[in-house]
Amino acid sequence: MTNIMPAPAPKPWIMGIAPYTPGRSTTDDGRKVIKLSSNENPLGTSPAAKAAFDGADRTLERYPDAGAVELREALAAQYDLDPARVIYGTGSDEILHLVAGAYAGPGDEIIHVRYGFAVYEIATRRVGAEPVIVDDRDYATDVDAILAAVTERTRVVFVANPNNPTGTFTPRAEIARLHAGLPRSVLLVIDQAYAEYLSPEEDDAGLALAMTEANVLVTRTFSKIHGLAAERIGWGYACAPIIDAMHRIRAPFNVTTAGQAAAVAALADTGFVDATRAHNDTWRGWFVEQIGQMGNAGLRCVPSKANFVLVLFEGNLTADAAYHGLMEAGYIVRWLPSQGLPNALRITIGTEEETRGVTAALRDLVERA
Ligand SMILES: *Cc1c(COP(=O)(O)O)cnc(C)c1O
């Protein structure tokens, strides 16, 4: 066999990217187990969204609606937005990449927090820009640290609210202070992938800022509370020039026909969204209380407003041992040493049975440690 050497060289900044690690759904030995590693909706998908997906036009040779007109209009009606200023993506991940591509390149800087969403660094490096990683304040977003990191080369700031993987929430006044402290030339991206898990009065007013400010982009997704992760649908809202710039580089038919139909129906099913939020409030509360009882064993929850909790292991039982022990017991959670969190597990709130089960398994490991 002949080796074809050397292969063409990718841009050097591409080889500096550590590939995204998805949440796993099988154990090391290939057993299928309960997956609490990707913040998916344990209640599934709205039945109406499923029906719309199943009933969508199956003319497979036709491209989807490139303008996602019905979806943009449904979003605009629900959130009182201008449909012309709604961008849509193959997941909100695509929108994060679009914004980095439109606003940054070699020589530029993009700021995100140390324990932030892994895609920010990938999107930054992909365009040859430099990630500037700022310290947290006890795992939460530190607005002062972000503002202190701004230089004349800063182009974009990525903030997830609530944040992943920490679950922490930056209140409205802090988001307003962050925006007010940034130069107008810096684009503030508020990633609201988990916003629907907040109660309405907790809203961080990101969308209100995006309505009136020229340097704010809000991103949302149908993957989390709406339970449509498989279809890859995200959206964003910003002023017209930002939307125009992103449209120039997005993939032309980036949301599928069935996905658009499912998303429109999911949006209308507010009952399903409310039931999911209520379920999450109840079982996240219960879970946090149970972990609190393991405090003397060194377990501690970072305060979460999302559908997952970051549990810190500061006693005899290490996060590494707990991760493998839970896998043995049939639960896959997220251990994040690659994100600088070797002492923590991110655990998605599952069904009642799953949440009780993973808690009992954890208690067992604590008692045996
Ligand atoms: C899950 C997640 C997203 C992206 O989800 P998509 O499926 O691409 O829409 C974006 N940001 C954060 C913080 C997330 O956790």
UniProtKB/TrEMBL annotation:
Query: What pathway does the annotation place this protein in?
Result: Amino-acid biosynthesis; L-histidine biosynthesis; L-histidine from 5-phospho-alpha-D-ribose 1-diphosphate: step 7/9
Q: Which UniProt keywords apply?
A: Amino-acid biosynthesis, Aminotransferase, Histidine biosynthesis, Pyridoxal phosphate, Transferase
Q: Which residues carry this modification: N6-(pyridoxal phosphate)lysine?
A: K224
Per the database record, which ranges form the Aminotransferase class I/classII large domain?
A: 32-358
One GO term under biological process is: L-histidine biosynthetic process
User: Which molecular function term from Gene Ontology is one that the record holds?
Assistant: pyridoxal phosphate binding
Its catalytic activity? L-histidinol phosphate + 2-oxoglutarate = 3-(imidazol-4-yl)-2-oxopropyl phosphate + L-glutamate
**Enzyme class, UniProt record, top EC level:** transferase
> What EC number(s) has UniProt assigned to this enzyme?
2.6.1.9
> Its family?
Belongs to the class-II pyridoxal-phosphate-dependent aminotransferase family. Histidinol-phosphate aminotransferase subfamily.
Which PANTHER family has this protein been placed in? HISTIDINOL-PHOSPHATE AMINOTRANSFERASE, HISTIDINOL-PHOSPHATE AMINOTRANSFERASE 2
The family database entries (NCBIfam families) matched by this protein are listed as:
hisC (TIGR01141)
What name does this protein carry?
Answer: Histidinol-phosphate aminotransferase
Organism per entry? Sphingomonas aurantiaca
